[in-house]
UniProtKB/TrEMBL annotation:
Record-linked Pfam families: Gln-synt_C
The protein's name: Glutamine synthetase
Family as reported in the entry's similarity comment: Belongs to the glutamine synthetase family.
Protein's UniProt keywords contain Transferase: no
Highest rank taxon of the organism: Bacteria
Start and end residues of each GS catalytic domain: 122-452
InterPro entries per the UniProt record, alphabetical: Gln_synt_N_sf, Gln_synth/guanido_kin_cat_dom, Gln_synth_cat_dom
SMART domains found in the cross-reference section: Gln-synt_C (SM01230)
Organism in which the protein naturally occurs: Mycolicibacterium komossense
Keyword tags: Ligase
Amino acid sequence: MPGVSDAGPQSDESATDRRIEELRAKGVEIVAGSITDPAGVTRAKYIPLRRLGDFQRSGMGVSPSWSVFCVDTGIAFTPTIGVSGDLRIRIDPNDAAVIDDGIAWAPGNLTDQAGDPAPLCLRSLLQAAENAAAARGLTVRVGAELECTMLAPDGSPASTEPWSPYGIRTSLDRSAFLVDLAATAERAGLRVEQIHTEYGHDQLEVSLAPTTPVAAADAVILTRIVLGRAAARHGLRISFAPVAFEGGAGNGAHLHLSLADEQGPLLSGGDGPYGIRPAGGAAIAGVIDTLPDLIGVYAGSALSALRLKPGNWAGAAACWGLENREAAVRFIAATAGSPHGANAELKLIDPSANPYLAAAAFLNSALRGIDRQLELPAEIPENPSQSAGTPPPLPTDQRAAIEATEKSAVAAELLTPEVVEALVAVRRYELNTFGDRSPAEITQALRLAWSC
Ligand code: GLU
Ligand code: MG
């Protein structure tokens, strides 16, 4: 595991002892290790601080069925995932961050008892994608935006007064919460770039600095946790539902991707549009090419279709364009206004998607485009729904989207057949359970499903 020194068990033990002392000095009593499952739900086990080393060495036991737990209490058993067997969550003590009074948290890998990654360890899947990029001589950076909706403790709207999008009033009305959020995030080691109240009523956004892919997905989960804890201290709850209230704005979970080789960034400094180099164009083409197969991954929940529509800035069209907020891929060029350089933002991802899985799909589809030297499609610079060069429509029917992912050879190639099987099982369960309910009923049922 990353973070383990190769100097032998004794030095591991003293490193763990030191870590225990550091965490004890911060008041930590218990440590959580979590995994985020194919339904996008984060689930955890806790140990008393003195057992920190065991959380790394032997891990904490979980049933294989954790990977097919659903957004409610259902379990979507598959031919390969039943009631028998046992897996482990293993953490790296160096990752432990304080998330609340007395509690530290670390992201877990899902492993077998011996310590090898389980086929449904989505964090390891993203690590493998990161390694595949490195094997091609590419460094990868992923940045994340987290949109969410503030709620009252009973799950009703947090405020009833009129809302002003990005309003200084609507944000200052929550000043104590925002200050607490920023301070807690800082203490937890997060690199928050920006916080703002968003367009939708009671909507909030936190964006994170780009980093390596697994670290970026870990940071998404840590930010969700920190948001949830800080909100609770101020009489609020946080919804990560793609749409929290019928007719309300959608919550996106946009990811930004940039790639570089030894000559520099792939998305700037070249001869293509906005300086895009051929491999960078192929990467964007790869992402667009696989969208119809991967909507079930990026926006696959029973609530996702309520958001993924033209006019919502949700990127519901399979195209790219410079700063185009209606395109699935919004291209951000290298300018003085973009301190982290050029990148491709995949806007259609929503927070019901597992961030490790979404990032793996995004990165692997970009690598596939590079391997196949796909040609960058023509840019759609205007609103795609009013564009002459209309891009192919994305499936709007959620059952069709899940079926497309299930039948897709590309999805199986990029994400493994085991992962696709589990994802399809939990998403189909959701559709069968909630799919026929009205928007008001389904938003109410799933409003807190992805909260941490
Ligand atoms: N809330 C929009 C979404 O659902 C995104 C708005 C924005 O571009 O920030 O993705
Ligand atoms: Mg936003």
